[in-house]
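anyone seen this seq b4? input:
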Amino acid sequence: MLPASNPAEARVAILLATYNGGRFLAAQLESLRQQTHRAWHLFWRDDGSGDDTCAIIDAWPMRDRITRVDQDSGRRGVLGSFMKILAAAAEDFEYFAFCDQDDVWLPDKISRAVGWLQGHGAAPGLYCGRQRLVDDDLEPLGLSAIPRRPPGFRNALVQNIATGCTTVLNAAARRAILAAPPPAGSIHDWWAYIVVSGAGGRILFDPQPFILYRQHTDNAVGANASLLLRARRAAARGAGPFVERLRDHLAALTSSGGLAPENAAIVRLLSELGDHRWTRRWITLRRARLYRQTMLEDLLLYLWLAAKRLPDG
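predicted toks r here
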């Protein structure tokens, strides 16, 4: 399908995954209704809520703009829900926007993403951006960090900068993601960043925030607003979970294909991280040129991957 010549006419599928979200859901739905871009349709899936989540959506007046996906199919978790909705959204849509149940979108969120993506051709494209961090009552807490280094596949393999609630995909990016099933332990937004950048697509990070991102005890992931907090969380988790997730991502990329040649070469090179000698692993890492957003994070990354070999799948 050719993109609409007028960005205002581009059809956008909003992909909403819910689970016990009744506390904040009405505010999110109202923010969708207030979008200046009007050509949107909401596809949603509930993951077995025990509260009034489904009743709130069923009572929403904009029934002609809603399609429920995979009703009464049991728990799938965040990754499974979003992948199911992404697959179910009609192919005649041009853009696909991940949506969390507890945030508030500013009125120009969709129009901003569409404008950026339409200006970068028909290759796979992923738009993401900064967030205004707020508490339960939408009181401001600050802004999320802006990446210091450019997005790309070498970053995507070891760090996610594409916060899902800000992420919008074009149709080519959607096709690439659906052709590359994620490993079970992944996260939908991180996998989208990996696949789109791996395919040679464009990653567009908007430094202007167009979302109020609630930070509360029920967040599935939440924001890392500071480098210090990010470092503390990484140290608390340790190398094991990080290395295992990298292994799973590499295995899924190898089996699915779809990588640009230079990125396929990086994946093949990283298979050598299974070597038992730490010196060989250090050399491999230097050749792969993986990077996070700061030199301190890079040092921790290299120490972890040099000291702890990738486990067998």
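The longest helix spans residues 239-256. The mean pLDDT is 91. kinda curious what u guys think
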